[in-house]
Amino acid sequence: MVKTHLRFGALGAALVLTLLMGGWALAGIERPPVGNPAPALTHFTFAVAGDNRGEIPIQQPEVFKRILRELEVLRPRFVLGTGDLILGYEGEEHRIRAEWEEFIRVVNEISVPYYPLVGNHDVWDEQSRRIWDELFGPTYFSFDYGNCHFVCLDSEAGVEGQLLLPEQLQWLERDLASHQDAEHIIVALHVPFWSYEDDSPLWKRDVHPLLVKYGVDFVTGGHTHGYEEDVLDGITYVVSGGAGAQTDANEATGGFHHYLLVNVAGPELTFAMIKPGAIEPPDYVLPSDRPIVEAIEQNLLPSAVVRVGPGGLEQSGITLTFRSPLGQLHAGAVEWVVPGANWVIYPQAREYSLAPGESVDLHFSLALPDPREANPPPYYTTKVPIRPDKVFEFKGRLGAEKHAVCPRTETPPTIDGVASEEEWRGAAVLENFALVRGGPSGWDPRVLLVRDESNLYIGAHLNAPPLLVFRRPDRIIVDLDADPTDSPCVEVQFLCNGTVRAGRVDPVARTQEWWDLTQAGRIVVEENGWGGEVAITLAGLAFKVPVEGARVAVNAWSYCNQGGRYEQAIWCWLPGAEYGQRRFGVLEFE
Which of 164, 455, 522, 590 fits a 20 to 30 Å CA distance from 4? Predict the structure, then answer.
């Protein structure tokens, strides 16, 4: 394979077309070298920067651009981009190519060679895989550089029970066996299977023994948006997925943006974990820190949930009780961050001082002028020392629990799939969904609820024309639970392919028990949208008649993908909370 470069420069669309038709120009993104470009080289550095994709289609995060600028100054020999390079999951080819165009343009601002590896946001169906193959070549490959051999795997081509397909696994063993003369062997891939409870046994069964057998030194992956380092049978395993995507955890457990700089010095191989703007040692996060982090999260990060009804915010203030889990005096400050302009919190910052074992109540006033704009809710930050030499910023959440009242009717709606205004007049309406992903689309999901002596009636509507997409059809999901402290809940699904189903679902135990809805559910497809209706028994909700005053945990979700425009929306959204809290608002029976 000839060493080639991808570049988008001032020629704009014309150069993009040349690239997509197979043309190449000098720049930062390269296909890895075929022959060893420096066989006598024994001292050099390379970088690892994975999971740089953002949350907005096409746009690359500013933190990724900052990392690239730092790499241009540090000048490693090359960069391994360990997957999830674009947001992806688009339906139309021109949208996918537009994402790649922007990614390539941003990366090619640097002169350091950049070798892309495939992630689940980069390849998700046959079309996206074809585009990847066209732009970047094989999804798994190896190359030599100096005294090192690099193996880059495709973590996206496995099946259940096999992390790597037999063909790739056999290739891996042949490749490792034929490069025993390398002083160091480095393996890179996107998904860090070794760090996941479900995948780790398969990794240790199929892959890890090969890596031990053939003397692999260093393995790195991303996918998890954070940092984690471990050593297993002499192999250093590093999860590094912090080059731009939204982080998965708090800073003290690895949830921060970063990249790796790996130094090869003859027989020695070391690395630094670098936060943009600050270089940190590998022990920046230690397993021994976890007990104090957990104590801080449980005692020094109180959360509060306020209720938002149809008329607006149902309380004017909150009190947060901070308890010190530390063994020494701790002085700090609580500072509120308001993502949207609709919330008002006063004061926006308050200082506190806590001796060991002490607690303090901090009071804040709240206002929410427009109840339709309750999401996302504010959060606060506070800095706490977890070691004498380490101070971390922690985040605490304010949850906005939405509230609706389900009325009682003597004339229940006819379950024919058409939620007519007359039949559903006076019903509780769940609307003003929070957009979790995607941009404004005008699809406006709505859920209607009303009940009689025996049943709860649910109607749903979406202003999106139905279209079966690459992974699943568009849908609206309603979760209901009389006991939100317990994992199982009743789930109702309206799918644009004509299916309505309901049953008891346990997301923790991963069990599903779907009920027979032959006579109780209908979907009707219209030219510019679709909707459905269903009746489920109050007994199915574990309610006994009468149910006046009863409260049900409720939430509704919407998933849409039309012509490459993807939207995920949710009615009651408490980001960062536990599963039971995150799903639910409150539905009160009239």
Answer: 164
Asked if residue 146 lies in contact with residue 182, where contact means CB atoms within 8 angstroms, the answer is: no
Question: Buried b / exposed e across 489-522, counting CB within 10 Å, b at 16+?
Answer: bbbbbbbbeeebbbbbbeeeeeeeeebebeebbb
CA gap 317, 329 in Å, rounded: 28
Fold of the domain built from segment(s) 295-401: Immunoglobulin-like (2.60.40)
Predicted confidence (pLDDT) per residue in 316-341, tens digit: 999 999 999 988 888 999 999 887 66
Q: List the one residue out of 34, 38, 37, 12 whose CA is nearest residue 25.
A: 12
pLDDT digits (tens, 9 = 90+) for 335-394: 998 876 678 999 999 999 999 989 999 999 999 888 777 766 788 999 998 888 888 889
- 313 beta partners: 308
164 with 199: CB under 8 angstroms? no
Residues of the chain with CATH 2.60.40.1190: 407-589
Degrees (nearest 5) of the Cα angle 169, 171, 177? 105
Which residues 6+ apart lie within 8 Å of 247 measured at CB?
225, 226, 255, 256, 257
Please check the confidence at residue 578 and state whether its pLDDT lies above 50: no
Which structure tokens are listed for 23? 């043309």
Is pLDDT at 7 greater than 60 in this prediction? no
3-state helix, strand, coil in the chain (%, to 5): 20, 35, 45
Q: What stretch(es) of the chain map to CATH 2.60.40.10? A: 295-401
Return the SS3 of 425.
Answer: coil
Q: Name the CATH architecture for the domain at 407-589.
A: Sandwich (2.60)
Helix (H, G, I), strand (E, B) or coil at 101: helix
> In this structure, which CATH number among 3.10.290.10, 3.60.21.10, 3.10.310.20, 1.20.1070.10 belongs to the domain 5-286?
3.60.21.10
* 114 residue type, one letter: Y
User: Where in the chain do CATH 3.60.21.10 domains reside?
Assistant: 5-286
Whole-number pLDDT of residue 576: 43
The predicted-structure confidence for 226-235, as pLDDT tens digits, reads as follows 999 999 999 9
What the block records as the tokens of 417 is 């799939």
Residue type at 253 in one-letter notation:
T
The strand pairing partners of 450, in sequence order, are 457
pLDDT tens digits, one per residue of 72-110: 999 999 999 999 999 998 878 988 999 999 999 999 999
Q: Whole-prediction pTM value?
A: 0.62
SS3 string, 500-557, reads EEEEEEECCCCEEEECCCCCCEEEEEECCEEEEEEEEEHHHHCCCCCCCCCEEEEEEE
